[in-house]
Amino acid sequence: VQLVESGGGSVQPGGSLRHSCAASGFTFSSATMKWVRQAPGKGLEWVSDISPRSAFRNYANSVEGRFTISRDNADNTLYLQMNSLKPKDTAVYYCAYASSRGQGTQVTVSS
User: Does the pLDDT of residue 28 top 90, yes or no?
Assistant: First the structure.
């Protein structure tokens, strides 16, 4: 399993970022995928997940209505669109499959 994220960065509150995760080494189109994050000094927090054919998408209360998870099974890529970002969204974001995670990308929301 290999998961490679991209798209992190620094933004001001209210800004937007889009994460991508390129997946390989498993049958992506059959996999439930998820995004998790880890804020400084805190444990891992589940953010969102998506079923193999995108029929079901779930979000943590803290991001509901602001974040959108999506996937492209033809390209083996998972996405997370993050809008209306808040300072409390500052964290390292990981895409995950089963017990595997990517290397993570840093998101910093600050004025």
Answer: yes
